[in-house]
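explain this.
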Amino acid sequence: MTATASINQATAAAVEARLQRAGIRLTMGGEPTLVPIDPKGAEWSVAADGPTKLRYARRLAAELQRRAWPGSTLLYCPGKRYDGEVNPRWALRLITGTSGEPLVPLQPEADAATAIPDPAALEMLLAAIGTDLGCPLQALPLRDPLQSDRQVWAIPLSCEDGQWRSIPWPLEDALRELSGAPGPAGLRLPLQHFPPGALRQVLTLERDAASWALFLPPLEREPLEQLLRSLAAHSDAWQQPELSGVLPWDAYEHWQVLGLTADPGVLEVNLPICHSWHEYAGWIELLEQAGAAVGLRSWKQQGERTEGTGGGNHLLLGGPSLDEHPFFSRPAWLVGMLRYWQHHPCLAYLFSGRSVGPASQAPRPDEGSASLLDLRLAHGALEHLPPGDQRVAIGETLRHLHADRSGNTHRSEISLDKFWNPAWTAGCQGLLEFRALESLPDHRWTSAVALLFRALAVRLLKPELRPQGLRPWGESLHDHALLPSALWSDLELLLADLAADGLPLDPEPFRAIWEWRFPQLMHWQQGEAALSIRQALEPWPLLCDTPVEGGSTSRFVDSSLRRFEVIATPGFQQRYALRIQGRQLPWPKDADQLLAVRFRQEALFPCLHPCLPVHVPLQLVLCDACSGDPVASWQWLDESRGFELLTDVDETHRKAAAQGQGLQATLRGAGEHCSTVDLRL
């Protein structure tokens, strides 16, 4: 075991011991995302679905079944539906018992792995299931307009108070046809012609020469298990069928469920509920191994550098059940966490993707729709609630404040739209969702971040360690606090807080994440004079809603702006000057002040300030501070290449000077004490 693993394992054990002593069961969940090794097509950039994503998902599900849950049940479910999309997005669910045992033995016999039942065999199967359930099943044949050789039967089937019922479905021959939308037959039924007053619960059976499938009716958990057991008992002579349907409302309380869902540009994995950090870390490692076996990974290759998938890696905290929930009766603990996160920008920016700030998918509360006053009032009210279950008060107080500037409660650094919101189907799960997390290329990094978040939550169980108010960051949040050096200093404060409380974490994986998130774009050194430039974050502004094909609108941000941090030793600042586009870069008067440069990388449409010029290629010239003579020069074309050293220093100096003509000689920021200077000014 490495030193990092040893330190973090010991701290993880201490975290779980503290939770146990406090009588708290704090669960974890995760939503990591994956992409193929060579992602091609819109489905791996902007679209939710495409020709290969479901195939990758099924291959990954099979690999996870083999490695973790042998004999588990795979169910194709309708997922979320969005405007402009005909059908709901698909979601695969792997289901097994709470201790890992299969719900039903659906594995076929070894010599029947490829056998497909013929229509006569399926008729006998339905008869056998009807006998098991105590009601004859009445099947209605339907045509599939998308595949003429595929045979489909619809069997009305419901269960109320333990009594099964199958009714006839009288339907004219001309109406006995599925819709032309893609997807399982159970999502394409002509239910507008279903017998009035009857429960619209239908078992759908379909087959062709290569496969057979069932869409299970929407049943409660126990009847669904009974139906699956009957199916398993009479189908072991054939290839395992593809199963589709919907999960019962109480599935997560009685089953372990792992999800694979279609999300724009990525395949999202919804981990099973984890009851400790060790369980979470084990799943993250297993997912990396299983993904590699089927050609998926948690990062993309962009030129010479790597970056995240572009999807999230969200972390969720909750409880084992709604009756045993750690936050419902401890609103002051939750407030302490929210304040602590607001005090430390590294928790919002260091582990996130490229898009940060108010227009991102995870704005901080002080970047969203709420004012600091409203946040302070809310926190104060929650701290003084009487003892007892306060889930409603917490949800109604915070969910309106943790939202982006359009009021979207899902887009928040710490989202409460799944905490307690009865207005939404999935809104009452008691979950805190930390969304300012991007996929990382190493499972050990992801696990280290999850342990950091869990350890901070446990530390804040002590009231005396909780912040007493919010910090008014103002403009310094985006000018200074999100620069790489500031974020690392902020993270060191967190690690020091944990170490002082007996919960030390090894800084090595976090330093590796920092180096990866903010790659070095150039380095130059002569003796004690050293200069480094690192890629930095830039909050991209939100543009107006733009009409898109299909009649809906889409949110655009202007991602043309870039920023880098300039890190120079005192010896360098005394001996040398830097010129960018012929304009001098002013060294900070305060030794503790950081320095960064904002510039326009490209022209986009639509964009903010379309009349302002693009600054690329950037010309960077290092000059002697006394004589002004050029010493070295670099050129920037794009981030993947960084600053490239040029040989003709004088020519670069001449070009840069020509670019700076007519502009103020010295670069400046938007304010007198800004850390970031702006080439647009």
Summary: The chain is about 25% helix and 20% strand.
